[in-house]
Design a protein that fits this description.
alpha+beta; 53% helix; 387 residues; five-stranded mixed sheet; five-stranded antiparallel sheet
C-alpha cells in the first residue's frame, strides 16, 4: 500500500503530520475550554458534544485538504511520468525529432536532433523560437543552400514553414543527406523530424552513374570508342527533324577503308584492330564543327553526319579525311591502290522534307560509295539526292 510520503515526499509528510497534530491539540483545547467556561446551568454532556462536533469538523476539513494535496501531487507525477515516457520514446527513434508549440517555441527534442543543424549550435534551446534557432545555424554557415543569401533563404524558409507536403532533401556540410519532415498537429504544434538518408542517396547516385555508363556503353563502339550504329541512327533521326524545321541541308559521308580484308590477312587481326582505332581517331579529329557525329557504321565502314552542311562543306570534310589518312602513312603492302592505307568516300546532301525519309540520305551516300569502289577507290563522289 502506498504511504503518504510516497506521494508528497518526506518534507511534505512531516508538514502534514505536524499540521494534523496542531489541529487535534487545538480541538482538544477548545473542547476543554468549553467545558471549563460553560455556564453552571449548561450540562457538561452538551459541552462535550459541541467539542466533539468541532473536532469532527476539523478532521473532515483536514481530510479534504490532504485529499486535495494528494490528488494534485498524483496528477503532477502522472504528467512527469508521461513526459518522461515521451522523452524516452523520441530518444529511441533513429531520427532527430523536435516539437514546437503554437508560438513556434521549442518544447521538446532528442539527442539526435541536437547533433544536427539547426539545433547543434549552442545556447539554450527550450523556449527559443525556430527563427532564433535557425539564425544561429546561419551565423555558423551550417546551411549550404543559404550561403551568400541568408536573409532571402530565411524569408523563404519561414514562409513555407509547416507547409511541406513531402519530405525535403537537404545536404549537410559533412556530406551527409537528410530528409526533413514537418508535420502540423491538430492543436497547432509542429513536429519536425530529420532522417539520415545518406546511404539511400549514395545508392541512388551510384545507380544513376551506372545507368549513364550503361547508356554510354550501349551507344559506343567498343573497339574504336566512336558512336555505334544505334547512336548514329538516333542522331540521324534528330538531325533529320531539325533539317525539316530549319530548311537547312544535312550531309552524310560514308567512308570505307580500301581492301581492309587484305590488310587483316597480311598483318593479322590485332594489327587490323589497331588500324581501325587509328583511323577512328583521325576521322574524329576531322569533324570539327559542333553537332557533327563520327560513327563506326559497321566493319571497316565509318559515317560522318554533318548537320547544316551543304555539298561544298561535305566535300571539304571528305578531302580532309583522305589527306589526314594519307599523312598517317599506315603501311598496306597488299593494297593494289597504294603502298599506304587509303579510303573511299561516298557523299550525299539533302534538305529533309515530309516526302523523304532519313534512310534516303543513307541510301544516296551508299550508292556514291559503291560508285567510288567501282571506279578505282581512293577518292570521293557526291551522289545526286532527291531535293
Amino acid at each position: 500500500m502506498k504511504h503518504l510520503a510516497d506521494f508528497v515526499g518526506m518534507t511534505g509528510h512531516r508538514w502534514l503530520t505536524s499540521w494534523a497534530v496542531l489541529v487535534l491539540l487545538a480541538a482538544a483545547a477548545l473542547t476543554g475550554s468549553l467545558m471549563l467556561l460553560a455556564p453552571p446551568g449548561l450540562p457538561t454532556a452538551m459541552a462535550v458534544v459541541l467539542g466533539l462536533v468541532l473536532i469532527l469538523g476539523l478532521l473532515l476539513l483536514g481530510r479534504a485538504v490532504v485529499r486535495h494535496v494528494l490528488d494534485g501531487e498524483y496528477e503532477r507525477q502522472a504528467l512527469e511520468m508521461s513526459y518522461q515516457c515521451l522523452q524516452e520514446a523520441i530518444e529511441a527513434l533513429p531520427l532527430g525529432v523536435a516539437v514546437h508549440d503554437q508560438h513556434d517555441r521549442l518544447v521538446l527534442y532528442n539527442r539526435s536532433a541536437a547533433e544536427m543543424a539547426p539545433y547543434r549550435y549552442g545556447g539554450e534551446l527550450i523556449g527559443q523560437t525556430f527563427e532564433t534557432i535557425i539564425r544561429r545555424a546561419l551565423a555558423h554557415g551550417a546551411i549550404p543552400d543559404a550561403l551568400g543569401r541568408e536573409e532571402d533563404w530565411l524569408r523563404e524558409r519561414m514562409t513555407g514553414r509547416g507547409k511541406l507536403n513531402r519530405p525535403l532533401l537537404r545536404p549537410r556540410p559533412d556530406g551527409r543527406w537528410m530528409h526533413l519532415y514537418e508535420i502540423s498537429t491538430s492543436s497547432g504544434c509542429l513536429v519536425m523530424a530529420r532522417l539520415d538518408v545518406t546511404e539511400l542517396v549514395q545508392k541512388s547516385m551510384a545507380l544513376e552513374r551506372s545507368n549513364q555508363q550503361l547508356e554510354r556503353l550501349s551507344a559506343t563502339d567498343g573497339l574504336t570508342g566512336l558512336a555505334n550504329r544505334r547512336q548514329f541512327d538516333q542522331h540521324l533521326y534528330t538531325e533529320w527533324q531539325r533539317s525539316m524545321r530549319s530548311r537547312q541541308p544535312i550531309s552524310l559521308l560514308l567512308l570505307d577503308i580500301d581492301h581492309f580484308k587484305r590488310y587483316n590477312d597480311r598483318y593479322g587481326h590485332l594489327a587490323g584492330d589497331a588500324c581501325l582505332r587509328q583511323v577512328a581517331s583521325i576521322l574524329y579529329d576531322c569533324a570539327q564543327r559542333s553537332g557533327e557525329l563520327v560513327a563506326r557504321y559497321g566493319g571497316e565502314e565509318f559515317a560522318l553526319l554533318l548537320p547544316a552542311a551543304d555539298g561544298d562543306v561535305a566535300m571539304t570534310v571528305a578531302q580532309r579525311c583522305m589527306d589526314e589518312i594519307a599523312q598517317a602513312r599506315i603501311p598496306h603492302e597488299d593494297s593494289p591502290v597504294a603502298e599506304y592505307l587509303t579510303c573511299s568516300i561516298g557523299i550525299a546532301t539533302v534538305v529533309a522534307t515530309q516526302d523523304l525519309v532519313a534512310e534516303s540520305l543513307v541510301r544516296c551516300a551508299d550508292e556514291a560509295l559503291y560508285r567510288v569502289k567501282s571506279s578505282g577507290r581512293a577518292h570521293y563522289i557526291v551522289a545526286p539526292c532527291p531535293a
